Amino acid sequence: MIDPDYFRGLINQRIESLRQRQEQKDPEANSVELDQTRVGRLSRMDAMQMQQMGLELERRQKAELSALLHALKRIDSGEFGECLECGEAINPRRLEIDLCATLCICCAQHREN
Q1: What residue numbers bound the domain in which 9 lies?
Q2: Of 29, 32, 23, 100, nearest in space to 67 by CA
Q3: Residue 80's CB: how many other CB atoms inside 10 A?
Q4: Which of 6, 13, 21, 90 is the most interior residue, by most CB within 10 Å?
Q5: Domain count of the chain?
Q6: pLDDT, tens digit, for every residue of 32-76?
């Protein structure tokens, strides 16, 4: 049996953590200086790579935030912890590892194959 209040608390903690990270935006995601007289070619390449990594991290955090907000809606509707494919209960240990899980382990494995 899943305790919705317990998982709501975990989800809210994770949301708060993500929002704090977004407020402390990584300067690596800023635009790269292209002036060759100020920065060497390899330094620019490193900066461009770091910029892309920062942008990807930001994209992943936004996607996770969206999934967590969806999980909260599922808690409110009473559907949290139910597999979207088969309707069976998702193991609470699986949900603790992945708060956004929407499939039981069997359906997730079946989908991967």
Answers
A1: 4-112
A2: 100
A3: 22
A4: 90
A5: 1
A6: 555 555 556 667 788 888 889 989 999 999 999 999 999 999 999
